[in-house]
Batch of 3 targets.
Target 1
Amino acid sequence: MRALAAKASGTTRKTHLRHGAPEPLFGVRIGDMKPIAKQIKGDQELAMRLYATGNSDAMYLAGLVADGRQMTRAQVQRWAQDATWHMISGTTVPWVAAEHPEGMDMALEWIDSPKELMAVAGWGTLCNLIITTPDEELPVKRLDALLKRVVKTLKSSPNLVRYAMNNFVICCGTYMAPLADKAVETARKLGKVEVDMGDTACQVPEAESCILKSRRGAPIAPKRKTTRC
């Protein structure tokens, strides 16, 4: 925690607060966090303790270090429940959940949650699984049904969930060969997705153009080993 505090940036802190981060936090740039993560990589117990502090920077660092395969389902569930804002529920939690053997089951459970951040974690976990898991190991029919669900329910879904659902469409179109064309059709049906991004310069990606750009001229983008960044 002292190492994180020493890397605090007033500008980063203000940016995170503007994006919805609650106290406590130091305001550490992710690039400045990486050397710390490298030093403690593999220390699962420390990662769990960092997340439990409730400090936004420590929670993000925990996600860079933790191995979801070493966590129990109850521990992953606790991380999802304790996520303090969308940066944690949309990145840190999905990183470890997607590594867990029951990650898909948890994701499908979370997307039905009435709690906005929990649903965001669910859609984020689905995205992580799609990006890193071979297509033959994914429940294609179930994910196909979720594309239909997005078309029907996105506009009536909570603000941050709309953003996460849009990302799900992008991931299906970019990384899943069986659903590539279906995802593009879904993106066209959705059109411009409206999300209140608050007092920030952030914009909602236009799904179809993002899919095509991410493919870089190929029928589909190659799977990735990890989504951590």
Target 2
Amino acid sequence: MLHFTEANSPLLSNEVNCISIDGTTGDVFFGTAKGIVSYRATATDGLDEFTDVYAFPNPVREDYEGTIAIKGLVKDASVKITDINGGLVYSTKALGGQAIWDGKNFEGKRASTGVYMVFCSNEDGSKTFITKILFVN
């Protein structure tokens, strides 16, 4: 859980009057006594069907150090990322309609150059989707 204050964030005031969330983008808006500020969160609204699924950035370049977002997912999808040989590299559950990967394997090492498969499914496995991510190191 996140806890924002003037001291630990760009929040303009500790007096928050309202909060609004754009479920499509994940943008969270804080209305304070001194104005409005926003940030991009990692959760988005989950969908009923896989829709325009994509990973961003893609390809992941050697100088990129941020997170990779897999968007357009059904609500709370299970996401498994494997190397091209099928070895499991990462597993997570989507936050609504978006999953986040830090680009590292279970040992905390950055993914090697190559193509990674992203397998997505809903809770009972009746809806599935596969996409790819290219890593360049």
Target 3
Amino acid sequence: MAFDPNIRASDADRDRVASLLREHHAAGRLSPAEFSERLDRTFAAVTVGELDKLLADLPSIDLYRLPDAALTRQPRQVQHGQALRANRRGRSAGWRAAWSVWFT
């Protein structure tokens, strides 16, 4: 089946294009004014061809392969000496810093 630019766009199509525009704006490819104009035109678009025109001069981005998607969130490892000091006193370095700020 060939791509037909006259097919009506769905809400999901508009949301996808809006997400892509946000990424391009964050990367500095779009000025705030141009981003705002394209976003308005995105939600007013009726066909997928209109949506494609909004992205025609921008490089393609895979939203599933953005740098944030590849980051792994692992707990911070505490040095053995820090853990002993924190356990011996019953509080962590973070609590000590918070209390010292509060006291000053």
